[in-house]
């Protein structure tokens, strides 16, 4: 008689009290060692390709890394500073975390890769609390519940999430804070005698959200908490009010400490953060200066793309009568949070597609309910369609890679010239090739491991296909994308041109140099730019670096052309370096 597999359990005494209680009551998924190792490997395959192996890319990654590098080198953590200039667009929680990772791992990883692992950390944290949020929403007894696993698959496999969880920027920490806060709010809404620890989770999530992106998401949590009693009788109690007050007491020091310190030590910079980057962006008076102005259809476009497929499945569920169940806690919390957030974004004077990322988790919960309503024939058709789609994308990625090798004919790749440099020579990387082959073989043999439950099989089909295409592209084609999107090549070329010319005491003025280009200049050359708003101001420096769009900038009066360059294949943004003419 064979013995049962060893069960993976950490020491209970080492766990926090809320987790110990959940563990004893059977709420956690019991994992055998092979399954635990398999899930860990799957998470690594999902997170690491695209996280490691490339320099910071424009837009958000470059300026985020500039802030992190400043914190690493200076030890100054209060004022986010990008290439020598205060950059008060976002609070510093993510930057602090990335700075810790950079300190810990810089002996074994490049600074940018070490910092980017903060994104993997926050994504893993978000995945844990999305799972807990889904279990609370569906009142599931165990984390192994099919609906819980489907929610996690829709969350990690959403179009925006699969892309942005690998990026070096603050919204990854924001999504983790939202997941924690939603778990706490869902637990508070589901019971008339909610536990105090649920309020702690809510307050912790709101505080993290505030310290990651600002006031928008905390405002949505506040509105949701206030309006939930309208829908749910369990929230019309003194206990619910007391728990909300406790959540506020937990969130307040997390959210207010940094702004208070900033206002105390640098009131002008506090005004920039609060009045321009929070109030001004929403009302609109700072949008002309800061950019990212809203368009009437942007929220709808992002809803159909960034949070797909959970968004469309959620709409399907509501159209099939799900709106009638809005008085149930498992529907009320994700629906109210998502509806309020989308309404506020639509009313805001500024918007970007990635602003919808925090709503991926609640829409995934509603999307699972929609997926469960689909008939078996429809699910079969969707699954076969997904197999055909991802098989075609698999062939496409492999075809692009093989045609990009030195001995191949590149005429078929001409349409890619809009994004990638056609004269790039793809290096042969044996380890990357072995990993890509292994990943392809595993995906081709995936059917033997799929469950018989059709909705869960469809969700896993989507997730595995998204991870496959992403991981293959960022394994096989990463050097090519790095050549197009990274600044290492252009700045190293400029640095080589300056060798023997740059003298001690020289400085470099910059004109119209972007918030992404400036930190990469410092990272790859060690030159800290001196920005000017008018060309006569540059005369205090021997060198002048100008960024232009389209045609290169002609030499200003009193300057001579020294060097011109751009990223490989980039015909829109050009860098021109001038030397001050000798008098």
Protein architecture, described:
The chain contains 23 helices and nine strands. The radius of gyration is 26 Å and the shape is globular. It is of the alpha/beta class. The N terminus is likely disordered.
Strand order of the largest sheet: 6-5-7-9-8
Strand content: 5-15%
What is the makeup of the main sheet? 5 strands, mixed
Number of helices: 23
What's the number of extended β-strand segments? 9
Helix content: 55-70%
Arithmetic mean of pLDDT: 88
Helix-and-strand structural type = alpha/beta
Shape: globular
- Give the low-pLDDT segments: 1-32
**Rg:** 26 Å
Separation, N- and C-terminal Cα atoms:
94 Å
Keywords:
583 residues; alpha/beta; five-stranded mixed sheet; 23 helices; 9 strands; globular; disordered N terminus
TL;DR of this structure?
By secondary structure, this protein is an alpha/beta fold.
Write the layout of secondary structure elements.
Blueprint lengths: L6 E2 L8 H8 L6 E2 H15 L12 H15 L6 E2 L2 E2 L6 H13 L5 H28 L7 H11 L2 H6 L6 H20 L5 H18 L2 H16 L6 H28 L1 H17 L3 H4 L7 H8 L4 H10 L9 H19 L12 H14 L2 H29 L25 H15 L9 H23 L1 H8 L2 H11 L9 E4 L5 H9 L4 E3 L10 E7 L9 E7 L7 E8 L3
Parallel strand pairs: 5-6, 5-7
Antiparallel strand pairs: 1-2, 3-4, 7-9, 8-9
Helix pairs in contact: 3-4, 3-23, 4-5, 5-6, 5-8, 6-17, 6-20, 8-9, 8-10, 8-16, 9-10, 9-11, 10-16, 11-12, 15-17, 16-17, 18-20, 19-20, 22-23
